[in-house]
Amino acid sequence: MKEYKVMEVKKRDAEKVMNDMSAQGWEVVSMTYWNYWKICLLIVFSRDV
After folding, report:
1. Are 43 and 6 in contact (CB under 8 A)?
2. Which tens digits make up the pLDDT trace of 16-48?
3. In this structure, are residues 1 and 47 in contact, taking their beta carbons and an 8 Å threshold?
4. How far apart, in whole angstroms, are the C-alpha atoms of residue 1 and residue 15?
5. Beta pairing partners, 43
6. CB 8 within 8 A of CB 28
7. Up-side HSE of residue 37: CA atoms within 13 Å toward CB?
């Protein structure tokens, strides 16, 4: 079974967030930009439960 987490991050923080989450056993599943009121990066992580 998998567990998923969606995080909204600023572009300048993305690499640090991905490295921190990786150290906790999370893997990046997808990334996309969201542009509605502001531009942000959405990163989806998963890990085995």
Report:
1. yes
2. 999 999 999 999 999 998 787 878 899 999 999
3. no
4. 26
5. 7, 31
6. no
7. 0
DSSP 1-49: -EEEEEEEE-GGGHHHHHHHHHHTT-EEEEEEEEESSSEEEEEEEEEE-
Sheet arrangement for strand 39-48? 2-9, 39-48, 27-35
Q: What is the CA radius of gyration of the chain?
A: 11
State how far Cα 37 lies from the chain centre.
20
pLDDT for the residue 29: 97
Beta carbons of 11 and 21 less than 8 angstroms apart: no
Asked whether 42 and 14 are in contact (CB, 8 A), the reply is no
